[in-house]
Specification:
There is one protein chain. By secondary structure, the chain is an alpha+beta fold. The chain is built from 16 helices and eleven strands. It has a six-stranded mixed β-sheet with strand order 1-2-6-3-5-4, with helices on both faces. A hairpin with a 4-residue loop joins strand 9 and strand 10.
């Protein structure tokens, strides 16, 4: 059962009671992410995410860890382009403890200078780790090219220079300017009573009174084009990107189904054509990066240099085919079952249910029943999938990035990719 309460300062509290489970997953969400950072603040949201577990006026970092360990629970946090979330999961009888810990770190973290200095080294190691993982780093580089001149295209972790320049004063200033009550959603799912949960969170969170609003987000403009970056690696990492869908537009359902058919499952066209039939790549998939106001439909493949030309040709052929011919009813039906099955399997996790509560509140301001989503998925026909893809697909509007020992120039890649069809 879903319930919602708005606290006096505008913080929204949403819960879903699941009486047959033994746990409660709780998250404090803020509708602020790396795309909301100004010049000179790059990476500060992610850095604050790290710092909120380093001690409060009542608890040291060790105290926080020991209290949750003592009840078999765990806490964590994450930062995305549009949100930061601090969350924890415990047995239902320990819900008061987890609420006390989360609200304490959210409101009362001390940000001691020595902890900031120590955590800067940790985050710098995280940045280096990502840059040493080319199949992850290529996506960071590609987004910077595809959404250049917009913060949405910049990495969540910021830059080494910005992280090194973060201090206590800049953290406190950023918090006062971004963690506005009306941008905060507290979500909980599990075996709980809504009114009891509100009674636990309200006394502390209603004291938050930050009044500064950030400037509105600027929707990014796509920058298509072909780019090649030589790097001494074992593989060439290829990313292709097209206009996708936002998280709330109606076309998200045809787009998600097309993504499953194109490359987001083992039976997908790209997986079968590139890996199974030709052995051109071990890792190949399509993906969706959806945000509040835009999105990207993309393809990734890790290939050897000698397979670049054939891989590009197959990718182009499969994209052309999706635009030219409606998908079969059998393929569409299988994709619908894939999405429906994924949705309901995820629903068995209280963490997943908590995440879904918060995201629906940010996007739609209400709870979206699973049955409504299922109905939308089942209503999609082959023609609407094709029509949506035709509206966004033009090879000249694609972004294409090759990273590794390519042995190619931009012109030679352009000739291979755009000469197809």
């Amino acid at each position: 059962m879903y319930q919602k309460t708005v606290l006096r300062n505008g913080i929204r509290v949403v819960t879903e009671k699941i009486p047959y489970v033994y746990s409660v997953s709780t998250g404090i969400w803020v509708g602020v992410g790396s795309r909301d950072e100004q010049e000179g603040e790059r990476g500060i949201t992610h850095f604050i995410e790290h710092m909120l577990f380093k001690g409060t006026r009542r608890r040291s970092a060790l105290d926080i860890a020991k209290e949750l360990d003592a009840v078999g629970g765990f806490a964590n946090a994450f930062t995305s382009k549009e949100h930061v979330c601090f969350h924890a999961k415990v047995l239902d009888r320990h819900m008061p403890l987890v609420v006390d810990v989360l609200t304490d770190i959210f409101l009362n973290s001390v940000f001691a200078p020595q902890d900031i200095e120590r955590e800067q080294q940790v985050v710098l190691q995280e940045i280096r780790m990502i840059e040493d993982t080319p199949d992850e780093f290529v996506h960071v580089l590609f987004q910077e090219l595809f959404w250049k001149q917009n913060p949405l295209g910049l990495p969540i972790y910021g830059t080494a220079e910005a992280v090194a320049g973060t201090d206590r004063e800049s953290i406190l200033r950023y918090l006062s300017q971004t963690f506005h009550p009306e941008e905060i959603v507290v979500a909980a799912a599990g075996n709980l009573e809504h009114d009891h949960f509100v009674d636990l969170v309200a006394p502390s969170l209603e004291k938050l009174d930050h009044s500064v609003h950030r400037p509105p987000r600027e929707k990014p403009v796509n920058h298509p084009g072909i780019h090649v970056m030589e790097k001494d690696l074992e593989q060439v990492h290829l990313v292709l990107g097209l206009q996708g869908v936002s998280q709330s537009e109606d076309n998200r359902f045809p787009c998600h189904l097309l993504n499953v058919i194109l490359g987001n499952s083992m039976s997908s066209r790209l997986f079968q054509e590139i890996r199974e039939k030709r052995g051109l790549a071990y890792s190949v998939y399509s993906f969706l990066n959806s945000h509040a106001d835009t999105g990207m439909l993309g393809v990734y493949a890790g290939i050897t240099p000698e397979n670049i030309e054939e891989s590009l040709q197959v990718i182009r052929q499969q994209l052309d085919l999706l635009a030219a011919e409606p998908i079969s009813e059998a393929e569409l039906s299988a994709a619908k079952e894939y999405l429906r099955g994924s949705m309901y399997l995820n629903a068995e996790s209280t963490d997943s249910r908590m995440n879904r509560l918060a995201k629906n509140e940010f996007l739609f301001g209400r709870f979206i029943p699973f049955e409504d989503v299922e109905e939308k998925i089942l209503a999609v026909d082959a023609k609407s999938v094709q029509s949506w893809f035709q509206s966004v697909y033009d090879p000249r509007d694609a972004g294409l990035f090759l990273f590794g020992p390519t042995g190619h120039t931009r012109e030679s890649v352009e000739k291979i990719f755009l000469a197809q069809g």
